[in-house]
Amino acid sequence: MSTYTLDTSTSRANPTPAPMRRLTVPKIRERKSADGKVDRPIVMLTAYTARMAQLLDPHCDLLLVGDSLGQVIYGLPTTVPVTLEMMCAHGAAVVRGSYHSVVAVDMPFGSYERSPAQAFDNAARILKETGAAAVKLEGGEAMAETVAFLVARGIPVIGHVGLTPQAVNVLGGYRARGRDDAEADKILADAKAVAEAGCFALVLEGVMEEIAIEATKMVACPTIGIGASAQCDGQVLVTEDMLGMFERTPRFVKRYDDLAARVGEAAAAYAAEVRARDFPTADQTYHPAT
Predict the structure, then answer these.
(1) pTM
(2) 194: Cα within 13 Å, side-chain hemisphere
(3) Range of the domain at 113
């Protein structure tokens, strides 16, 4: 329970936190019962800044500091160039801005693939520098040993199979996966491997719906879909996609707003008032007391 009060008079970044108990990794894992049922689907969105975390936190169970920040924040073409330093900086900001959700941080490309020991060193750094509760890493059977190694040493892991964006150069693009039997079987084998290795949740991205449903029934941990199926145990989206901040919207995204247009309109109104010398007015300027 939060027992302290931040000074809200000196910084817009520090609103007074609502007293609430933060969710835990075991509580997320327990959402899925032994018979495979989830009565309350898991809500997950991406967050990269303290302010966005503050806005999303009351509504989410999990906040993911995704390596998608490479594209959303930094304008990079893929997630491959994202660094550990980027993830730690943004992860710490999201933890500071949240009081309820479990915060998980993506491990960036190249920070965990070489060996379980490398993965542990970098995952431990992420948790130490950010205060986050978990890490997420991509890959199936090839990463099962690493998942088990981390979990056995006290690092909660979210798995990620199907369309794995860090492997874009191998996959040749971002098309949905599982269109043929061999690929479908590989996705299911990957899901089973990382789930049995100990991940407490599993992201299924960009897979045929039938595969997502089968994987959800097959694994003991909750599944979180993105471009998968409403029958997954939860859902995640990139928040900026959901809010309509970009011209292109992936097929699996539902736009819940058109913030890009609204930001543009506000900027245009501001620019017009500045050029007409209508801003600032007496309400926004300082004068000696009379």
Answers:
(1) 0.91
(2) 33
(3) 25-260
